[in-house]
Design a protein that fits this description.
This protein is mainly α. The longest helix is centred in the N-terminal third of the chain and has 30 residues. The relative contact order is 0.05.
């Protein structure tokens, strides 16, 4: 910034300059603090916010979305494990006619 400028005779300009300097310092401080705040956020949460298309705006919501995704993945995995060990395949039931037909043709 340039050194202090003395303005004589016009108090309005001097007051406006002081206000401008205060606002510039506040904006400078805000600009420095924002990236640091974003840096503390976990990378996965930042990715969810980035790729959400604007639907997710804060860290807590992003973490809830990640938690829901993890729970969904675990439930889906358990379901496929259940199916792979035969839990979802019931034994086919045969009608009495079908059993009699199998007996007749298997004895030959």
């Amino acid at each position: 910034m340039p050194p202090e400028v003395e303005i004589k005779g016009n108090d309005e300009i001097a007051q406006a300059l002081k206000e401008f300097e205060l606002k510039a310092k506040q904006e400078e401080n805000i600009a420095i603090v924002e990236p640091m705040k974003n840096k503390e956020m976990p990378k996965m949460a930042r990715l969810v916010i980035k790729y959400s298309g604007g639907a997710i705006k804060d860290e807590q919501t992003a973490e809830y979305v990640l938690l829901a995704f993890i729970l969904f993945a675990v439930v889906l995995s358990l379901y496929f494990l259940y199916l792979s060990f035969g839990g979802g395949r019931p034994e086919p039931k045969m009608s009495p006619l079908m059993m009699e037909a199998m007996k007749r043709y298997s004895s030959h």
